């Protein structure tokens, strides 16, 4: 009995340090979390991709992205997600703005979102449409391209905020 008590004491001393150190680690920021729902998930560790298929919904902080296929690309070493791509009937909801397009690529590292193919963005009664929209949310800049067609914008000139302001 004394022998087991001695072993237990020694093991407790060695385990106490790592367990306490684990509690001191910085908690994961809520804004870094991505929650995803889908009908299917295919992970390719070698390529560093996770492909979600079937009524996919991904949420990161206050941005919701939906599509029939969403692909996450991640760094093979750090396992940190670097890019999210939604294809086939992509839909984005961000605060009071909505957008639909054929494809959206969201670089989580640079906080740049590129929407392509029949892009329509709305905010209340305001609206922007084009073939390619690039949103740089860190630098609060947007580029809308017609891609052979025309860029169309409906803006409420009486308001101080509008659809063109996508910054954080």
Question: What would you note in describing this structure?
Answer:
By secondary structure, the chain is mostly beta strands. The chain has one domain: Lipopolysaccharide (LPS) transport protein A like domain (lipopolysaccharide transport protein A fold), CATH 2.60.450. Helix content is 14%, strand content 53%. The protein contains 1 helix and 10 strands. Residues 1-26 have low confidence and may be disordered.
Q: Residue ranges: pLDDT <50 for 5 or more in a row?
A: 1-26
Series of H and E elements? HEEEEEEEEEE
Helix fraction, binned, reads: 10-25%
Please tell me what the overall shape is. elongated
Question: How would the blueprint of this fold be written?
Answer:
Layout: H1 2-24, E1 34-37, E2 40-44, E3 49-60, E4 63-74, E5 81-94, E6 97-107, E7 112-123, E8 126-136, E9 141-145, E10 152-154
Antiparallel strand pairs: 1-3, 2-3, 3-4, 4-5, 5-6, 6-7, 7-8, 8-9, 8-10
Short recap of the structure:
14% of the residues lie in helices and 53% in strands. The chain has one helix at 2-24, and strands spanning 34-37, 40-44, 49-60, 63-74, 81-94, 97-107, 112-123, 126-136, 141-145, 152-154. Strands 1, 2, 3, 4, 5, 6, 7, 8, 9 and 10 form a ten-stranded antiparallel sheet that branches.
Keywords, please?
mainly beta; lipopolysaccharide transport protein A fold; 14% helix; 168 residues; 10 strands; disordered N terminus; 53% strand
């Amino acid at each position: 009995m004394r022998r087991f008590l001695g072993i237990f004491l020694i093991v407790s001393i060695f385990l106490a340090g790592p367990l306490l150190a684990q509690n001191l680690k910085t908690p994961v920021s809520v804004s870094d979390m991505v929650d995803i729902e889908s009908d299917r998930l295919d992970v390719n560790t070698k390529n560093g991709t996770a492909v979600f298929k079937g009524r996919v919904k991904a949420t990161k902080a206050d941005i919701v992205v939906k599509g029939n296929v969403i692909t996450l690309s991640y760094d093979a070493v750090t396992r940190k997600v670097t890019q999210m791509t939604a294809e086939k009937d992509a839909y984005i909801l961000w605060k009071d703005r909505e957008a639909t397009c054929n494809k959206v690529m969201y670089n989580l590292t640079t906080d740049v979102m590129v929407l392509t193919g029949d892009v329509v963005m709305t905010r209340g009664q305001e609206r922007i449409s084009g073939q390619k929209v690039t949103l740089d949310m860190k630098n609060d800049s947007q580029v809308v391209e017609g891609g052979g067609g025309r860029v169309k914008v409906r803006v409420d000139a009486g308001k101080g905020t509008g659809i063109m302001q996508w910054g954080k």
